[in-house]
Amino acid sequence: MFSGVVRSGSETAVVDDLRALVGDRVSTADAVLDQHGRDESSLPPAQPDAVVFPRTTEEVARIVEVCARNRVPIVPFGAGTSLEGHVLATAGGICLDMTQMDRIVRVSVPDLDVTVQAGVTRKALDERLRREGLFFPVDPGADATLGGMASTGASGTTTVRYGAMRDNVLGLQVVLADGRVVQTARRARKSSAGYDLTRLFVGSEGTLGVITEVTLRIYGVPDTIGGAVCSFPTIDAAVRAVITTLQLGIPVARIEFLDERAIEALNAHAGLDLAPSPMLFLEVHGSTDGVTEQMTEVGEIVTEFGATDYRSAIDPEERSRLWRARHDAFYASLALRPGSKAITTDVCVPISRLAECIVATRRDIEEHGLVTTMVGHVGDGNFHVMVLIDPDSAAELAAAEAFNARLVERALEMDGTCTGEHGIGLRKMPYLAKELPEGIEVMRQLKRTLDPHDIMNPGKMLGLEPDPSSAIGS
Amino acid sequence: MFSGVVRSGSETAVVDDLRALVGDRVSTADAVLDQHGRDESSLPPAQPDAVVFPRTTEEVARIVEVCARNRVPIVPFGAGTSLEGHVLATAGGICLDMTQMDRIVRVSVPDLDVTVQAGVTRKALDERLRREGLFFPVDPGADATLGGMASTGASGTTTVRYGAMRDNVLGLQVVLADGRVVQTARRARKSSAGYDLTRLFVGSEGTLGVITEVTLRIYGVPDTIGGAVCSFPTIDAAVRAVITTLQLGIPVARIEFLDERAIEALNAHAGLDLAPSPMLFLEVHGSTDGVTEQMTEVGEIVTEFGATDYRSAIDPEERSRLWRARHDAFYASLALRPGSKAITTDVCVPISRLAECIVATRRDIEEHGLVTTMVGHVGDGNFHVMVLIDPDSAAELAAAEAFNARLVERALEMDGTCTGEHGIGLRKMPYLAKELPEGIEVMRQLKRTLDPHDIMNPGKMLGLEPDPSSAIGS
Q1: pTM of the full predicted structure?
Q2: Does pLDDT of A472 surpass 50?
Q3: What ipTM is given for this predicted complex?
Q4: Which among A152, A193, A350 is the nearest to B418, CB-wise?
Q5: How close B159 comes to chain A (CA, Å)?
Q6: DSSP string of A245-280, one letter each residue
Q7: Does A342 touch chain B (CB under 8 A)?
Q8: Three-class DSSP category at A441
Q9: Cβ–Cβ below 8 Å for A417 and B441
Q10: Is residue A391 pLDDT above 70, yes or no?
Q11: What are the structural domains of chain B?
């Protein structure tokens, strides 16, 4: 294997070749390798042998060619906010840090679309778009790169209204495992021209190629944004209020569930003063009249389901503060137990089964005495449990993993998925095989076709055996 | 080649094997072969050697195994409403008529989703859903099967609001070329579990497998539906009104353009009395107040762009009549020139280029003295020109094809696509290669992987050379 060879100090031909391509934008410094060997999961770090910082698609193609010639693994790296170990260099190799590919290539106001290099972050894009009265809605919480978000098939709080990355990527530029550069689609709003290569690469987690450019749908900032919060006597009541809201076709832009432990975490972390009971955070977008009408309708529904304190006249400042707190729920949860790490679950079930799934999961948490918080993009049927563990306790880690396994099993029994938005990465590989037993075989066929030597983020997603020919060939 | 062998009268082992599987649901009768050798394009018919009528996925799998063993082509057939020759059995083989797979397997009101066998038609589904106050929005005009609509990546008049098939298929059951049955996804609203197999098969035109079941998103019938029509002094003004409407985020459900020739056709065919000038047909969905507000806003916009006769207080009956007429535009156009056939174009361009594209196309039509009508799903940047030709005139056919080639060239120069919704089929193969020159190579790799002997709808989409091993092997 390549791993360790470069690090051992003797410059190999691979690093020399990469230096010839990009000069000093190659690093084998310990601090840099260390930084690129971690993500936000609780998985053990795994460093690459070198980190390269490309600036153009052309450079990426040349770097991939060097790696392909030498059968060296390539791990694309964005903001490093993966929760499933996608960016850990478990087979060593070259980490492609995409953050210097941070150019917003083109904004088209009349077409409501934008093309960005893969390393542009969500917040950087948002800042640029705000000037034009536009925004990009997909919001996974973290300030991830758009390339990373496309790679994991990210979604988030606004997916119930605006869709996930899958729905908002119009086209990609991708460098394949042999260095070919492919544009997956033209810029038309829709097309039936051949296989949907765009969506083949969205969610492929770097295992089929390196995404270098992303073309995205964007949206006009709504005239009016309304926010509301309310508390429920039970989780079940909260979820049933959500189902009714969606069935009536009320186009809520966000509808987020938080359990009482998550509310406690937010209160402590963000200095809020919310009642510690199951809550919904809501947002509606539209014209002033439309927002007022929707807020009233939602108010009637949640009251019917026992909400006690529906507050819809939230001013923009308080709304921002609430959503900022919601976005920080991950960090707020960690702060509930200082020094802890989190195992984060990500199941998504048909919404008719959501209340049942959440209630059974709560029972499981209590039976096993786990320390958790729970938040949910409940409009999509997706919720996360953060299990706070002592990272030095093997027993706690095992208990959390066993809990996650039971939760996935429960979701699959309900015809749901093991991952709504975090992806498979390293830890969910056995679950993908359970979820789509025939499908994973097709995925493996596709992977072997487009990456026959398994150099693109090897060892992730598909549970393939390592390619015996993969080794340093310099 | 298989073609001709069965038809010549001697029953081959293939047909015997198929009879053993499905009894008398195999036909080699001339009338049946003839009916299954045509679509709604102007392409010459091409009959299969036999037609089989499966009723279950299991039967389809067994039929495909027989064909695979004997290297016999398989052409799935739904309602036969393709406009690009998808269902023509140009290499002979077995036509799989899916129309007896017409069972609505499951309707879930709380989940707003439905699973249907591939042969269920759009109208049959609509009838079933209406009872529940639900509807499926994708509406290509023809009463196509849902399997066919998934296969061609269909869309239509409501795509601007509800998306295309790509956006509304939650999962598929597919029989692959070796008889494996694959479920592409679970029933969760969203998932990041591996490659997006669902969207790999949506739009694959039967070339990767046979779609046997489709799970779809469905929607609550809106409280209120508002309809409006208006005439414009110029095409350019009409298109610019559309762009402004979309930019302001007004969620129109339909926004259809018709040129004056299309209006003339509708007037004659449907007994309407519309002013023969460029028109928009609009529809908005929502609450009563929301619809009123949107209709007023749209009225202000179109008036600003010179619309002379904005009528928004259309009663439901007139609205139905107008949309029925719009849906029949294809047949109404044919009636403009009795005995004619139509060559239908299908480009889609970024909406910022749409007015320019349409105006240049009109100039081209006039310069070449073609008889045409034009309708457009202009909210998506997609429009169709129906060129009415004498089917016996090689010169007219050539002129129409040359016009289409120029139009595609124009669309590609504008970063658009050769097909917004009709698919590639037989006639657009050279254009796909121009549109996605690197992409088509990736598509060919995928096709060779999943269908190594090229038995699934061979000769379509990808311009592959026939597989020399494909022949009757009985």
Answers
A1: 0.95
A2: no
A3: 0.95
A4: A193
A5: 9
A6: HHHTT---SEEEEE-HHHHHHHHHHH-----SS-EE
A7: no
A8: helix
A9: no
A10: yes
A11: 102-220 (3.30.465.10), 223-336 (3.30.70.2190), 338-425 (3.30.70.2740)
